[in-house]
Amino acid sequence: MADLLKLLLRVAEKAANVARVCRQEAPLFQLLVQEKTGHDKNKKFVQDFKTLADVVIQEMIRHDVGAQFPEMVGFIHGEESNKFENGLGESVVVTVCATEAETAALLATVLDGDSTAASLLSRAIHQDPASIDADTDGLSIPLQPAQLAIWIDPIDATSQYIEGKEEELQQGVLSPSGLHCALVLIGVYLRSSGEPVMGVINQPFNHKDGGRWRGLHFWGVSCEGLNVCSVPRPEPAPGPALSAVLSSSEKPAVKDALSSLCGPDQLIYASGAGFKILCVIQGLADVYVLSEGSTFKWDSCAPHVLLRAIGGGVADLHAALKSGPEQAELAYHQPNLECEGADRWANRGGLVAYRDSAQLRKVLEALKGKI
């Protein structure tokens, strides 16, 4: 299964290339701007180009993984539907075809005949990335493809991706918004139990080199006593105060309760669920707390693995408050049967992402009876 990890790193980099091409090539960038402004009322799904970019990445990952691991076909799940209706009212199912030309022709039907944009997008889909620098040699992972399923979030924090604000990241500093918040997330879990066991995160817009964006990738494995992560466990901050990252829309009661735990300026607001969990992994925040059920399995599966590999986790917040954290870790295989659509896969009890169980207990104690 080390081969699966290598493949996921490669397809995540391909996905990052697609995300970058959509911003760096003028014909595709104009479609992205149209999604932002919403002025083009005649081309329904050109206006929704952001969703098409998501779907293209998702289907590319599904295609490449299924080709190498046919036992996993049917168990590779994503955030987006791959069915579109073009400006002529024709229904189009977006897939990755055998050749670049065939994929371009299919995409042109969705893009109302825009062959230039379709060709640029297809070229990025079919282009193999440069070799991925990841120290996975000699890694033996005790899993079989028939045991596994995958969650894909093709572009997490899409609002930041569309807005396109460029921020220069500083070492050890949490920058709360910008293109760097947009992540490609691929999480692998056990079909039988929903336990997250392998995760890949690609940050397509980490830094600029010669005027063009370059990315950064992270990965982790956590299964059967094996815990390996590309991110070393951060050193704990001195002193008893915690730092917490939240959504700006978080409930006032949660903000007030956590402010008593956090030091000055250590209650931070940031964009993107995946990015906020990545901040915990990197030690830019100690915990990420969300009291609402507004994240989904595809948001949390990949980064959950990295946290597990360094001794932390992601717990269902409300379950942990009710029954204790021991049985509250998120699982990824069972839908919410009483819900419909995407809500079937929501993390309905909110979540708390943490690196240290002692810090998790402090958070739960502060929030008990408050939400």
Short description:
This protein has helices at residues 2-24, 26-37, 44-47, 49-68, 100-110, 115-126, 158-163, 252-259, 273-282, 297-309, 317-323, 357-367, and strands at residues 76-78, 83-85, 91-93, 148-156, 183-190, 196-209, 212-223, 226-229, 242-246, 262-269, 287-290, 313-315, 351-354. With 371 residues, the protein is α+β, with helices and mostly antiparallel strands.
Helix and strand arrangement:
Blueprint: H1 2-24, H2 26-37, H3 44-47, H4 49-68, E1 76-78, E2 83-85, E3 91-93, H5 100-110, H6 115-126, E4 148-156, H7 158-163, E5 183-190, E6 196-209, E7 212-223, E8 226-229, E9 242-246, H8 252-259, E10 262-269, H9 273-282, E11 287-290, H10 297-309, E12 313-315, H11 317-323, E13 351-354, H12 357-367
Parallel strand pairs: 1-4, 9-10, 9-11
Antiparallel strand pairs: 2-3, 4-5, 5-6, 6-7, 7-8, 11-13, 12-13
